[in-house]
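Lab notebook, page 48
Experiment: co-folding of the full assembly
Goal: obtain a model of how the components sit together before planning crosslinking
Operator: M.T.
Materials (sequences as entered):
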Amino acid sequence: MALLKARELLKRFGEICAVNQVSFEVREGEIYGLLGPNGAGKTTTISMTCGLLKPDAGEVLVAGKNFWSDPQGARRILGVVPQEVALYDELTGRENLEFWGRLAGLAPKESRQRATEVLEALSLADRAQDPVKTYSGGMKRRINLGCALLHRPRLLLLDEPTVGIDPQARMNILEFVRGLATSGTAILYTTHYLEEAETLCQRIGIIDHGRLLAEGTLTELQRRLGGDQLFVLEGDLQNATPEQWPDFLERFRVIQKSEHQLVAAAIGERDPAACLKQLLALPVRVENVTLKRPSLNDVFLQLTGRQLRE
Amino acid sequence: MKPALAIGHNDLRLFFRHRASLVWLLAMPVAFTYFMGFAVRGPGGPASPRPAVFIENQDQAFLGKYFLDTLGEQGLRIVAATNRAEAKRGIRIPADFTQRVLNKQSANVAFSTVDGAGDEAAALIELRVLRALVAINGNLVEHALATSGQPPTEEGLRALNARENPVQLDSRFAGRKPMPVGFNLSLPGNLVMYVLMNLMIFGAATIAAERRYGVLRRLMIHPISRGTLIAGKVYGLILLGLVQIAVLLLVGHFLLRVNLGDHLPALLLTLAIYAWVAASLGVLVGSVVTAEEKVIGLCLLASLPMAALGGCWWPLEIVPDFVKLLAHLVPTGWAMDALHQLITFGGGFAKAKGAIGVLFLFGLAANFTAAKCFRW
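Observation: model returned without errors.
Model output:
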């Protein structure tokens, strides 16, 4: 069952269209990744799904109901982890958790009890009484995540929850998020880290300039480029004109071309050796050819003409 | 309702985690109240309106006792032998005082000085002894006239005392009310100024900081309404204001000996409503001004002139009429009006209710505007 449905969301800030006709859904127990560079519209999309912003057009359905028909009811189902570490530095980890639990509607006793459970789950029980300002970046991120979990939300929105922390802390958070999904929580996860989207998310939506360019499982997205085959040619390609090469565009799709590199995907199920032979026969001086499995970055490259890391 | 309480209590807890804030909340207002009160002390009344005298009454008959009571009625505090050190003067009533008066002979009352006692107190005592003597002699003459020369009796004299005097002097300030001076000015003045300044600065700065750290956005994605959030913020600030008010009133009453008057409930109501006004103004500034670095300066720029204009630094009685008019365009002016009425002028709720009502309207307007302008 889809706990979150976004239908043709549109949001403008003056002349800028931050989110343009974005639709997706997140099912129970699923981690849906919204992948895109900074400024792509991820945070605006999350802000509309949690009611911080009203869409100019389109609608958000939470558990089958329009968000704005009962915003407080929808917020009771939701947990949101903001991109910034939105905590009270002077308070301890436990005090922060208990406070946000109270605001999520828990009674004081229940909030205390849940704070203990969350601290244990996040491996922060031994630092529970220390002020948050004494925590490391990774610990702050974990408390930031924990503050959204007190009321056991069925739908969790995570807006780049691992920005600015070390790889070990990132691994811990990703593992924790996987555990939440396994227990049935629907998770919308925005990120600009390819590896996170590849290893964490069951389905991925690629967003850029406010538009959802493609979505699907990692395999489905890779297939858009020609299954498992992606060829990278390196050499002097300054004057290369693929459109003039005989039969080339019928057999290959150009993903990216620069002065020194050409990335192409084979069209259809083809023998890699045959493909290599055809590429080496091209009327250009090729110094190196690499065959690789397409990554999300390649998908992004094909969709936008630029690297996600740029 | 519960989330609003949680927000308010959390804000109060956060305030007390900043130890430095306590300086502005408690230490500075107390210090300023003391120094300002000291600086603007007026000529004032005598140091002791009921100076102490030690009286050695050797007369066992009724006129000795009657004379003692008359001295007390005239404003002298008669101390026992054990507290003789407190006395500024001594009086000795001779053993034959009653007998000599009944025999229509003159009776001498001895009046003695005390080493170290000031002249001011002595002069006051002499004046009051003189008034007591005039009163007792007057009653003796009146009694003799009423009884055709019969010797005076205790009952007869006390009956004359109980009767209302046919001629009385009712003295009061001509034209205007007395001017509050000393701690009677500095206590309400600093209370009004610091409550406004602290609640505005803390309220606005907290909101600005929470906006910067994304805490306001996080608050807004919880199942609470915008009104609840505003109510929580205002409630927390009111609690803070009440702490400051309680401390200043206790210091004023017990350390600075300010007589807070007989209308404590009305006084507390005035201050609670005023704290609500100041809290709402703080939330309003925090809502409107998004540049965190400008918030404190702006609050100071708003609260200090309001304090000066409203009569927190000097009595409004000494300013020109147009300044008096301006004073009543700001809440501080109305708060000072109500506080002076309740503390200094002895007026009750009836006299202060107009100012309290205007303060309430200020509170409503500030709260409504803050809710309207609130930006996360």
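Interpretation: Chain B has 14 helices and four strands.
Next step: discuss with group before ordering constructs.
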